[in-house]
């Protein structure tokens, strides 16, 4: 993004900016890394930005700190699920990203899928699991393999691929350590894609390739064996179809500002929506900066553009 496409070229227009990072979720360390990258980028642009590691006293810090707006780069519960967004609404502080409803829906994988399905968008079949679940019946209905997931975690925390009925209960137990709600999802055996959204623009898709069982936490943040293909290798027509689906999924949940939609492709070339991330990672391994580079945008440019959504007339969505 060049300066001609900006709402403002004056870093002073943002005033004093709180960069909210860290928090207490299972994704705390990733959020701290994302937050430091965003903080440095904003300062490089001349913005009066200040990092805040979110803890119990964050409301007092925000209320007394003379802040004009917040850049939310919290991942996981307490920051990406509508809780912090609601707090910022109460304080009257403009903030980046989606509002309360879309943040809550995006963090809730199960209800995201329900909403997409109600809107006629493709997402794999699924079923809520519990202690009294007939796991054999679930495997029969959905087929094997399956993916078992906590409903409210990100970064693949607590997820297990299940190849045999006998392993389904233990996968549920693993996921239950992170969340009281757990669901099984039909496994899509094909390529994995992700599409970053900036405002109303879908960035070039990225195809993810890992030798691991799936694109798990290790593959996302630590492994050197993960490969990212951007351009993804799709022909122009399928790329356009994927980007259009990602934008539909983003809008149906009421998301705004920026985000990332994860999609699987099946053997017949069909696309299936997996989840929406309303506050994606911004680390050196992260996908939004990678897609932005492919579209010709620097890290500083996309951070500026995200922050611009907090200016008057810059925000849409819920």
Structural notes for this entry:
The protein is of the alpha+beta class. The chain is 34% helix and 20% strand. Strands 8, 9, 10, 11, 12 and 13 form a 6-stranded antiparallel beta sheet that branches. It has a 4-stranded antiparallel beta sheet with strand order 4-7-5-6, with helices on one face. Helix 1 crosses helix 11 (299-308). The protein is globular and about 60 Å long.
Helix/strand layout:
Elements: E1 16-21, H1 28-44, E2 48-53, H2 58-64, E3 69-72, H3 83-91, H4 100-107, H5 109-118, E4 126-129, H6 135-142, E5 146-150, E6 160-162, H7 168-176, E7 182-186, E8 192-198, E9 201-202, E10 206-209, H8 217-221, E11 227-229, H9 236-252, E12 258-265, E13 271-277, H10 287-294, H11 299-308
Parallel strand pairs: 1-2, 1-3
Antiparallel strand pairs: 4-7, 5-6, 5-7, 8-9, 8-10, 8-12, 10-11, 12-13
Helix pairs in contact: 1-11
Let me know the average pLDDT.
91
Q: Give the tally of β-strands.
A: 13
| Main sheet overview | 6 strands, antiparallel
Uncertain runs? none
Give the N-to-C terminal Cα separation. Answer: 25 Å
Tally of DSSP helical segments = 11
Give the helices and strands as they follow along the chain: EHEHEHHHEHEEHEEEEHEHEEHH
Query: How does the overall form come out from the CA principal axes?
Result: globular
What is the radius of gyration?
Answer: 19 Å
Percentage of residues in strands: 15-25%
Summarize the amount of helix as a percent range.
25-40%
Determine the structural class based on helices, strands and strand pairing: alpha+beta
């Amino acid at each position: 993004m060049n300066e001609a496409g900006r709402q403002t070229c004056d870093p002073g227009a943002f005033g004093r900016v709180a960069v909210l990072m860290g928090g207490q979720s299972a994704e705390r360390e990733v959020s701290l890394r994302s937050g430091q990258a965003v903080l440095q980028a904003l300062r490089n642009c001349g913005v009066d930005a200040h990092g805040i590691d979110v803890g119990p006293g964050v409301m007092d810090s925000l209320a007394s700190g003379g802040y004009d707006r917040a850049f939310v780069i919290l991942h996981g519960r307490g920051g990406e699920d509508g809780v912090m967004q609601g707090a910022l609404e109460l304080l009257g502080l403009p903030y980046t990203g989606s509002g309360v409803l879309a943040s809550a829906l995006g963090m809730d994988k199960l209800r995201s899928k329900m909403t997409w399905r109600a809107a006629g968008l493709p997402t794999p079949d699924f079923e809520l699991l519990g202690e009294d679940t007939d796991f054999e019946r679930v495997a029969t209905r959905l087929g094997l393999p399956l993916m078992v997931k906590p409903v409210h975690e990100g970064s693949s925390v607590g997820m297990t691929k299940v190849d045999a009925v006998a392993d389904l209960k233990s996968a549920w137990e693993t996921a239950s350590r992170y969340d009281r709600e757990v669901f099984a999802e039909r496994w899509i055996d094909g390529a994995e894609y992700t599409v970053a959204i900036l405002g109303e623009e879908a960035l070039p898709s990225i195809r993810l390739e890992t030798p691991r069982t799936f694109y798990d936490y290790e593959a996302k943040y630590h492994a050197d064996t993960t490969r990212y293909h951007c351009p993804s290798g799709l022909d122009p027509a399928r790329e356009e179809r994927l980007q259009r689906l990602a934008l539909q999924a983003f809008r149906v949940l009421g998301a705004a500002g920026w985000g990332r939609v994860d999609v699987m492709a099946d053997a017949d070339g069909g696309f299936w929506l997996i989840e929406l991330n309303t506050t994606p990672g911004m680390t050196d391994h992260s996908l939004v900066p990678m897609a932005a580079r492919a579209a010709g945008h620097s890290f500083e440019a996309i951070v500026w553009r995200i922050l611009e959504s907090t200016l008057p007339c810059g925000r849409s969505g819920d």
